[in-house]
What does this fold into?
Amino acid sequence: MSPPNSNASQKRAVVLLSGGLDSTTTLAIARSQGFELYALTFKYGQRHAVELDAARTVASRFGVAAHWEVPIDLRAFGNSALTAEIAVPKHRSDEEMSTDIPVTYVPARNTIFLSYALALAEVATAQAIFIGVNAVDYSGYPDCRPEFIAAFQTLANLATKAAVEGTATVTIEAPLLHLTKAQIIARGLALGVDYGLTRSCYDPSENGAACGACDSCRLRLRGFADCNARDPAPYVANP
Amino acid sequence: MSPPNSNASQKRAVVLLSGGLDSTTTLAIARSQGFELYALTFKYGQRHAVELDAARTVASRFGVAAHWEVPIDLRAFGNSALTAEIAVPKHRSDEEMSTDIPVTYVPARNTIFLSYALALAEVATAQAIFIGVNAVDYSGYPDCRPEFIAAFQTLANLATKAAVEGTATVTIEAPLLHLTKAQIIARGLALGVDYGLTRSCYDPSENGAACGACDSCRLRLRGFADCNARDPAPYVANP
It folds into this structure.
């Protein structure tokens, strides 16, 4: 917990890092605010393990003080395209994408992720936890809403030894909460993020190329288009 | 998720089960309230793996509909006698036991445990989560307090797909919260709990005998004494 390049006087943040566009932008925002970075990546039997490689590359490029990879077993929970053998939906209509809770929903996922982050924040004496949830493009996920983040903040204020002893509090930061995908990308580009390192696809090919047709790819490609920017990540030829 | 002995019309509860005295009593209380039981046990690198065997025996004896054992890796978090190589304190004074946050504290442990329970409750369409936390004998643990449980209830009301869609809500039940150890034991005995199956010791011997001297053993033994009952669990000869 005391990595060699840790700086005792610098404020610290645990940043949830999947290796995707949103979490990488969040990492860049935390860095821009002067935080020493403690990246936290979950290995949860997701099919797109290519994301894990992306997370490692991103963490390395950002020079994080530590990168934790925590194995968690969500496969036993079933019911999600991200962890089980259910087909990832493609070419869904805008209305379907904006109103349905997607089949890619994992029960209580962000609750579990933030719980681990809270534990690690206590161990690392971090002042903040950064999470790249977004309520605009992912309105279907219950645990991506502002009221969910607020409720977790209340819980965090009660849950730890440090909070009870008054020695430290942890702030839950969700800087992307109210941004559109295009705004997120513009923010990241302004901060120098190399989006070629990031992976967002729910159904990438063996060599890591994005499918271009799942909800995540379509939101990402539209975001770049709205920014008049080109997505530098690799895609399959005919989505 | 659909065990062969599941009864579709019966209400269901996820019960956090460590194999200790408190969680086993909690399981008995849930059963007495008519719930079909879904036991959830964490394998978190605790030194007292004898608890795991106790949890399996208890789950089997109670005829649970399912018993999930979820591996979680808390060792990376460090700083706890329950998961690391720190000596378990013994023969502490009553004042030390009642006021200090023990070295056996695991950061954000109950937050993580309840998060998993919430996910599993959603998958199993359970109406309740039972947790055997206690604010009387374990006042040192921040995540054993009533306000922590209340905050998690608020979070649970926001965190799941079922809660958002209005199809189901999950109630967090902590029936031991305000009971003394003696009251917990009396309640369990009245419900027919065989405490000889349960294990509470932080530092058991190889053959599973309790040490009799750690905080957990002393609270337990005092509880039985206050009930004028004998603890049927095995102890080492000279604590």
Q: What stands out?
A: The domain at 12-226 of chain A is CATH 3.40.50.620 (Rossmann fold). Chain A is about 35% helix and 10% strand.
